[in-house]
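Sanity check

After download, print the first record. It should look like this:
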Amino acid sequence: MNPRPAISERSTVVAGFRTRVLEVGTGLPAGSGGAPILLLHGYSDSADTWRRVLRLLADRGQRAAAVDLPGFGHADRLLPDEPMLEQYVRVVHAASRMLWGDEAPILAGNSMGGAVALRCAEELPSPAGVVPIGPAGFDHPGWFRVIEQQPLLRWALNDAMPVPGPVLRTITARVFKQLAYGDPSLARREDLEAFASHFKSARDIRRLLATGRRLKGELVAPFHLDRVTCPVLLVWGERDRMVTCRGSRHLLAALPDARYERLARVGHCPQLEVPELVCDLLTGFRCALRAEDWDAAPVGHEVQELVAA
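Expected structure tokens:
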């Protein structure tokens, strides 16, 4: 039996930021299997959120990578005097060029990463296609209020009684489990531990919340969707507690040729909850682009109601 392809992990500098890249399919030639896929994580997350999807893509002979965006994971902090989304777009374009040269990738992003993917699609050169997964920036915003008001998190930030690092990470993992999954019982321990590993002290959480407050202002009407010309596959979990799937109606109204996959019983992070399904959607999207048969799927009854609402 052949061993599963390994994920390559490296530290590198992209657009002036020291960051970390996870990559599969490094030995495959350019053009192999269609467009490569660049995976973008959400607010408070990191490239680790894509590990299971990366392994599945590698099993299918797909070239793909995930990158820590500035301010998260192992990446440098954001520049203080420049809009966050503009910094992210610059990093994504630079990471793509570093990995695959002039070859246009598919950009797939969850939550904040979905918003970044759409922002990248507004510019030239255009990606081969974009797959926003529960993207932030529509029906703004309940997500940050939900995070700030978590009782366990508020208790952990109580200066009168400092919480030890291991306890803090346990609390962080528990909060993430409740917010990110449609069915918290499906959360895998290794995924929760990977998420919590980036929070070693209350200072890390305070810095994260400060970043969220800054980002919240930029996610009010952040898009110019009339500039998006590449194919779009919108994916949303119907049990998303952070960014309601009713936001899909705005994108579908602006981009009538976009396809929409609404995932039953799935929450805010489908890449963790149903990685096999996410991999199926990404590889199906890639195959459609490669075959140049991207015809708009009929808008179903449920989606029509969302658009008309």
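If your output differs, re-run the checksum step. Summary of this record's structure: The chain has one domain: 8-140+221-308.
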